[in-house]
Design a protein that fits this description.
63 residues; mainly beta; 7 strands
């Protein structure tokens, strides 16, 4: 959960975020974050690909 991550664009540009398949985790995790865009990410082997907890007005595109 990055500090001061509000009003940002996170563009993976088609790159992969890959976990090891163990545990209770997320590839991208945002807690109490607003107005972000997460796009073009390939996310594999996580319990949650993208986990938005108490977050609002975020946009997910082409993930």
């Amino acid at each position: 959960n990055p500090t001061n991550f509000n009003n940002k664009i996170f563009d993976c540009q088609g790159h992969t975020i890959e976990g090891d398949g163990s545990g209770y985790d997320g590839g991208i995790y945002l807690n109490s974050r607003q107005n972000n865009t997460i796009k073009n990410c390939i996310i594999r082997n996580f319990n949650y690909g993208i986990y938005l907890y108490y977050s609002s007005n975020n946009t997910l595109t082409n993930n």
